[in-house]
Each structure stands twice: as C-alpha cells, then as structure tokens.
Amino acid sequence: MAADHEQVEEIMARSCNSNVHFHDIPDAILSSIFSLITDTRSRNAMSLVCLKWHLIERSTRTFLSLRGNIRDLFLLPTCFRAVTNLDLSLVSPWGSPILDSSPNTALLAQALHWTFPSVVTLTVYARNPSILKFLAPQWPHLRQVKLVRWHQRSSTTLGFDFLALFEHCHSLASLDLSHFYNWTEDLPPALEAYPSVAASLSHLNILNYTSAQGFKSHELLAITSACPNLREFLATCIFDHRYFGSVGDETLLSLATNCPRLSLLHLVDSSSMSAARGNPDNDGYTDGGC
Q1: Domain COI1 F-box spans what residues (predicted)?
Q2: What is the pTM of this model?
Q3: Which of 54, 120, 160, 284 is within CB 3.0–4.6 Å of 47 for a Cys-Cys bond?
Q4: Which domains, and CATH codes, for the chain?
C-alpha cells in the first residue's frame, strides 16, 4: 500500500511539473462543459477561440434563432445538428410567410428537417395555415410550440389554423398563443376534434396580447374540458358582469373541476391588455390577473 501511495504521489508531482493545456481535456468532457453554457453571446465568443472550440460549440448548441430570408437553401447552417429549440419567427421580415419566399415550399420544409433533425421546441411565424401544413410533418415529436402572428387572420374555417399541428404532433405538451392573433372561438373546436392531443397538453398560454377580445366563460370551459391534464393555464377573459360570457365564481369552480391537476391559473381581464403589448421579459405573465 505504501508503494502504491508513493507511486500516485510521483505521478501527481510529474503532472504538476508538466505543461498541461486546456486542450488536453478529452473532447467528451469539453462537450459536457460547453453544453452547460446557455448564454448566446458567450457561446458566440467561445466559437471564435479556435477551430476546435468552434466545432464543439456548434455540435453542442441546443437553441438557435434564425433571422433573414432562407429562400436560398444553401444559406441554411448545417452545423447545428443538436439544436432542440428552434426559433423561426424572425426568418421572414415584414410579416411575409416563411415558406412563401421559396419557389418550392415542400423542399424548403424538408431542408429544415434535414438541417435540424432534433427539434422538439418550435417558435414560428404562422401567417397562414399552410405554414404548419408543411412544417408540422417534419417534426412529429414536437413537445412545445409557440405560434406568432401580428396580422389579422384570414376568413377561414374555425380552428383551421391549428388542425395541421394537431394532426401531426400527437406528443404536444405546451402550446403558446400569447403572440398569435386569432379569434377566441378558433381554439375550442380544434381541441375537441383532436382529443388525444388536447389530453396531452399540460401548458396552455392564450394570454393574447394581439387582441383586446377576451375568452368568454363558455369558451374557457370548453377548452379546459378538452384539456383535463393542464397544469398551467394562462388566458385573457372578461370579468365585467355587464358583458355576456363574463367569468365569475361558478366559472372558476368549473375550471378547477375540469383540470384537477392545475397548479397555475392566470386569468387577465381583456380590458387591461388593450393598452400595451406584453413584456417579453415577464415569462408570459402580466399585471391585473387573478
């Protein structure tokens, strides 16, 4: 035992006297260290250190937000294979649909899947239902989706905006519509048409900043009845009893009955939402709720 202890001390002393560089750390350990860094600016700075760091940073990045116009397929970055959280809401400026700028929308949608095969969280600007018709089949295992649309929706069938998403993504756990302009009567029929998807939802954010119209009492009850496993539910509504469909004590009790697992209920009167858009730093919450 004494000889072994002396041998260990000798090896440690030799290591201390040698010139050990940070690059001597195995790549597997470096990758684990890099994966713990989430700040985008820090990761961008790390990628400029050397070619090795650049490759490791690209292979361990899990969040990416694309900007600009991707109508040219060769401009798609192909080095972010580990990205699980993809933001496409800023790809096409001035409200143009993301796929309409390409002469072959199906090919572009497939290229996005080939480039980012591991996506489970998606944020996308969905100007019209055709966007999700092409994108949703590319990532059928999506768990979290946030839809963005500041423009008024076209006159289509109620719930048509969500049908492609619900048809292809059966594992959906979180749906964020806080920045998606739609009518309050759009969501209930879509959820009722796909009961398995509605039952898989645990987080639903319809705290809509783009419209002053709040969800009526019967609409909230229809949504929660279709989604019995909700744990977090955020919504705009009408509290003023002078208006039809206002939310009162009976509605609140029914919401609790429909969703027994609910741990967060955040309801905001629509009149308090019309003055300003939501603060992107408040995690979807706003003042004036209950």
Answers
A1: 25-62
A2: 0.80
A3: 54
A4: 19-61 (1.20.1280.50), 64-272 (3.80.10.10)
